[in-house]
């Protein structure tokens, strides 16, 4: 799975929620984030609804979610009145905006200040999904290295001196 999708699902697992039968709404249906998250969660037994730009009343869908993933690239799109009390919210959005001090800052797709009063769990932006995405990228790199070494050894019958040490 793409790194960001895998990181997002790993963060949901950290909440301790049982994914089997969990009502999940994903706002955003991109090929590298939204859709892979949906498939990963369905394989874990979650009930998944994917919302996109043609979805009628994203808010109505979002309010049903035990877990809400948001990845659309719209700063502060999700407000407190769109979140079910006690829901886990995974904010995958990365947006740049100019703050009141005139400085550029990074914000997510969720209005964290209002949603944190309703949600039981919310990822920060920055510092939430991004760092775990990097960690999963490194893990995937090590898996690829291991597979490449095994293939090389099987093909050429040579043992990598560094791996042997």
From TrEMBL:
Molecular function, one GO term: methenyltetrahydrofolate cyclohydrolase activity
Pfam family for this entry, one: THF_DHG_CYH_C
E.C. number(s) listed in UniProt: 3.5.4.9
UniProt keyword annotation of Hydrolase present: yes
CDD domains from the UniProt entry: NAD_bind_m-THF_DH_Cyclohyd
GO CC list: cytosol
Listed InterPro entries: NAD(P)-bd_dom_sf, THF_DH/CycHdrlase, THF_DH/CycHdrlase_NAD-bd_dom
Keyword terms of this UniProt record: Amino-acid biosynthesis, Histidine biosynthesis, Hydrolase, Methionine biosynthesis, Multifunctional enzyme, NADP, One-carbon metabolism, Oxidoreductase, Purine biosynthesis
Quaternary state and interactors: Homodimer.
Protein name in UniProt: methenyltetrahydrofolate cyclohydrolase
Organism: Mesorhizobium helmanticense
């Amino acid at each position: 799975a793409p790194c960001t999708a895998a990181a997002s699902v790993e963060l949901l697992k950290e909440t301790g929620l049982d994914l089997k039968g969990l009502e999940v709404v994903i706002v955003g249906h991109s090929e590298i984030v939204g859709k892979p998250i949906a498939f990963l969660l369905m394989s874990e037994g979650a009930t998944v609804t994917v919302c996109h730009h043609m979805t009628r009343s994203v808010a109505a869908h979002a309010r049903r979610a035990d877990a809400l993933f948001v990845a659309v690239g719209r700063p502060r799109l999700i407000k407190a009145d769109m979140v079910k009390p006690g829901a886990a919210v995974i904010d995958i959005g990365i947006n740049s905006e100019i703050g009141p001090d005139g400085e550029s800052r990074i914000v997510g797709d969720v209005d964290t200040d209002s949603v944190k009063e309703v949600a039981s769990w919310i990822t920060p932006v920055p510092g939430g999904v991004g760092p775990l995405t990097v960690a999963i990228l490194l893990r995937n790199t090590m898996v690829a290295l291991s597979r490449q070494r095994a293939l090389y050894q099987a093909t050429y019958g040579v043992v990598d001196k560094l791996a042997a040490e």
